[in-house]
Amino acid sequence: MASVIEGHGLHRDYVSLNEMNPNVKLAVMASEDQLFPDHNGFDFKSIQKAMKHNLKSKSLRGASTISQQVAKNVFLWQHGGYFRKGLEVYFTFMIEKFWSKKRILEMYLNVAEMGEGVFGVEAASEYYFKKHAKDLSRKQAALIAACLPNPKGYTIKPLSAHVASRYPWILRQMNNLEADPDIKELIK
Length: 188
Fold this sequence. Notes:
- This protein is mostly helical and 188 residues long.
- 58% of the residues lie in helices and 2% in strands.
- It has helices spanning 2-5, 22-32, 44-56, 66-75, 82-98, 101-111, 121-129, 138-147, 161-177, 181-187; strands spanning 11-12, 118-119.
- The protein has a two-stranded parallel ribbon.
- Helix 2 (22-32) packs parallel to helix 8 and helix 4 crosses helix 5 (82-98).
């Protein structure tokens, strides 16, 4: 909603998971949550690593899974302290209990901000590449995934330094992950 208030508009087109190219599903898991098929909504090793990093460094590192991001984006507000984080834990637990991994991934790919006022992979595909999400190439999917941590700062057009350096890494991770049977099941 902040994008609308700030005058950037709102671009969103909901599409089902089977209307998305497998490349974009794979790219998002490679970039955001490589253990997505296997965890129960929380990646405790990543949380521990982030806590250690955050104690030593001035820069903050997050450890939110795709499930946690869906809980925040669908049910909660963006900023907040411990109260909001507690609610996020509750909603993450609930969506993991009642939704399939495919449903969680579909929701994430439809609600995540992927540019200034651009929400969801279909809107991002049309905005950046003038095509539907089902027609994205591997490189285009990796470019979209590279902007996810900070879509207002990590831009595709113009290409930010972060996206330019991150998308080749995402492509390599996609190659590493795509043979995993659990990943294969989610991207088909």
